[in-house]
Write a structure and sequence with these properties.
Layout: E1 13-14, E2 27-32, E3 43-54, E4 59-65, E5 74-78, E6 97-101, E7 108-110, H1 122-128, E8 133-134, E9 147-152, E10 163-173, E11 180-182
Antiparallel strand pairs: 1-10, 2-9, 3-6, 3-10, 4-5, 4-8, 4-9, 5-7, 10-11
Length: 191
């Protein structure tokens, strides 16, 4: 039960990645559509909660379009662990719900030939690319919805045997009076 936010009710998404020789089992992904076209400059809140039993929390990934051509120019990823953050004061704690403020955190670009620093904040990305926005694209290879959560990658040792949970995605934008809370619940009915 996620008690990190009083608005939440029982339930969450399990994010487990067993060690496997099968290369198709290298990642677990949860995707969220509905934010395609949202300018990064309009984000007012971007948080999520994890409960890690073993290894690592889910990473957040945003697909970015910087020029309005409806294509992904690159992805940025957020890993809340101190090794990937400039602010190292929020350590990962096992067996405890933790909320991560991705909007204030350090992000890392991937799949880009553009002159983008190896780590930067959303504000720095907006300063470099003022028209940067989240983009949904057709689901091919690693693409699809513009907001996703991932466990897995390279090197596999960073993610192997991960056991944990994900809940309470909060996304706020300037055009909304209140941020939207996505609460993953379980069906407690007998039917």
């Amino acid at each position: 039960e996620n008690n990190s936010d009083p608005r939440l009710i029982q339930g969450s998404i399990t994010m487990n990645l067993p060690t496997s020789a099968d290369p198709t089992l290298r990642r677990i992904r949860l995707r969220k559509a509905g934010y395609s076209g949202t300018p990064l400059a309009d984000l007012t809140e971007l948080k999520y909660s994890t409960y890690v039993v073993h290894n690592c929390p889910a990473n957040m990934v945003l697909q970015i379009d910087i020029n309005g051509d409806e294509a992904t120019d690159f992805n940025i990823w957020y890993d809340p662990r101190p090794d990937f953050q400039e602010d190292k004061t929020h350590p990962l704690e096992l067996n405890k719900w933790q909320q991560w403020n991705a909007l204030a955190g350090t992000w890392h670009p991937e799949f880009t030939a553009l002159p983008v620093p190896a780590s930067l904040s959303i504000a720095q990305l907006v300063a470099t690319f003022p028209d940067a926005r989240i983009i949904d694209v057709p689901p091919l290879r690693h693409s699809g919805e513009g907001v996703r959560f991932t466990i897995g990658g390279t090197p596999a040792s960073l993610f192997a045997n991960t056991i944990g949970y994900f809940d309470a995605l909060i996304i706020g934008t300037k055009n909304e009076q209140h941020s939207t809370l996505f609460d993953f619940t379980c069906n407690q009915s007998d039917s």
